[in-house]
């Protein structure tokens, strides 16, 4: 059985790992020319810890954790309003089981577990035509190929979802803000520390990375939906610069570094809500199916758990060549995953402008049993 997976971030490689373990042949296609650098700190929590443990990655993920010592919140003049050595804004309690890790460190570890999987970088799917026996896929650059199943693991702005289900506008729910993430030198001299600033309609969070050599800058603003070119990074940088121009403290200095950052990323805080994640021989996993947004703190865990469940249900009906009752397998995957996705999506809107409560996070972390 041949499965094409679109997307090489977290859900895609995790799914490829499990499919290969079950004897299925996965291929991953990724529009970027190489693994994407940079990105924010992400969290592996609850059931997702079970998934990485079963992948044999738990100790390596723990070794790569961000090792934060605490956080401060400052006002627009840089005056410290509070500090904590018990929790951080991005990772929660420091004495808990959850693991905070940089996105590219987790994706690199997943790549080591899928070294025998075919990766196609610098290409994307142009068209999908399916029949009762398979899916004919046309690529933007490569030759057409036929697969038994196509999986969209390609994020909030999923190309597979657009081709199989329709335009993004049908499923996206804007959450009222935009954020940029980029890397800068540690010009602030922070030591395994986070600093957060919120000044009305704009705010920022800065934390160290790479043994304090770098800063990861998260900066954003409140806004309704905006029309902008997702391919024009300089226009996005200018949007951030304009909308956060009123921020003080060290933000102007960091905004200057933004213009040279090679890993600049900008996007809306949004969720995806769909009635179904499958259409024939096409299905979705991770953010493509049920993006919870970074505001939930659960996107990575949802991706890991969803990949595991999808592969598990496909494997249950796999006879060594094909999956018997593919519709049934995809339906069971969705029935198991949807309640978990929904309770985690709710975290993003529980306390607008602030993280969800520890009690809600704990319930969401363990809202599924694998």
UniProtKB/TrEMBL annotation:
UniProt-listed Pfam families: FAD_binding_3 (PF01494)
InterPro entries: FAD-bd, FAD/NAD-bd_sf, FAD_aromatic-hydroxylase
Top-level taxon of the source organism: Bacteria
Domain FAD-binding positions: 2-342
A GO molecular-function annotation: FAD binding
Positions of the UniProt region annotated as Disordered: 350-370
Biased composition range(s): Basic and acidic residues: 360-370
PANTHER family attached to this UniProt entry: MONOOXYGENASE, OXIDOREDUCTASE-RELATED
Name assigned to this protein: FAD-binding domain-containing protein
Organism taxonomic ancestry: Bacteria, Bacillati, Actinomycetota, Actinomycetes, Micromonosporales
């Amino acid at each position: 059985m041949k499965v094409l997976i679109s997307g090489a971030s977290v859900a895609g490689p995790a799914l490829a790992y499990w499919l290969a373990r079950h004897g299925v042949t996965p291929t991953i296609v990724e529009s970027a020319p190489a693994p994407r650098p940079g990105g924010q700190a992400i969290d592996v929590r609850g059931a997702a810890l079970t998934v990485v443990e079963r992948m044999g990655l738990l100790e390596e993920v723990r070794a790569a954790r961000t090792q934060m010592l605490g956080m401060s919140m400052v006002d627009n003049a840089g005056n410290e309003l509070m500090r904590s050595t018990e929790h951080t804004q991005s990772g929660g309690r420091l004495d808990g089981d959850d693991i905070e890790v940089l996105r590219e460190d987790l994706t690199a570890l997943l790549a080591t577990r899928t070294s025998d999987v075919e990766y196609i970088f610098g290409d994307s799917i142009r068209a999908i035509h399916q029949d009762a026996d398979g899916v004919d896929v046309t690529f933007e650059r490569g030759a057409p190929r036929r697969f038994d199943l196509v999986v969209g693991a390609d994020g909030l702005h999923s190309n597979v979802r657009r081709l199989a289900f329709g335009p993004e506008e049908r499923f996206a729910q804007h959450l009222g803000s935009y954020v940029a993430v980029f890397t800068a030198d540690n010009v602030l001299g922070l030591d395994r520390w986070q600093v957060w600033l919120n000044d009305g309609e704009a705010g920022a969070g800065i934390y160290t990375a790479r043994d304090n050599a770098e800063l990861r800058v998260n900066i954003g603003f409140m806004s309704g939906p905006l029309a902008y070119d997702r391919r024009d990074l300089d226009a996005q940088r200018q949007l951030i610069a304009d909308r956060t121009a009123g921020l003080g403290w060290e933000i102007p200095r960091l905004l200057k570094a933004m213009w040279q950052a090679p890993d600049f990323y900008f996007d809306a805080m949004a969720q995806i809500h769909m009635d179904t994640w499958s259409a024939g021989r096409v299905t979705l996993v991770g953010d493509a199916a049920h993006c919870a947004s970074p505001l939930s703190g659960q996107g990575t865990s949802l991706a890991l758990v969803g990949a595991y469940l999808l592969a598990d249900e496909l494997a249950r009906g796999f006879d060594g060549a094909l999956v018997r009752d593919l519709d049934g397998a995809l339906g069971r995957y969705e029935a198991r995953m949807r309640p978990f996705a929904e309770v985690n999506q709710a975290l993003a809107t529980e306390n607008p402008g602030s993280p969800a409560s520890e009690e809600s996070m704990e319930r969401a972390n363990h809202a599924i049993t694998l």
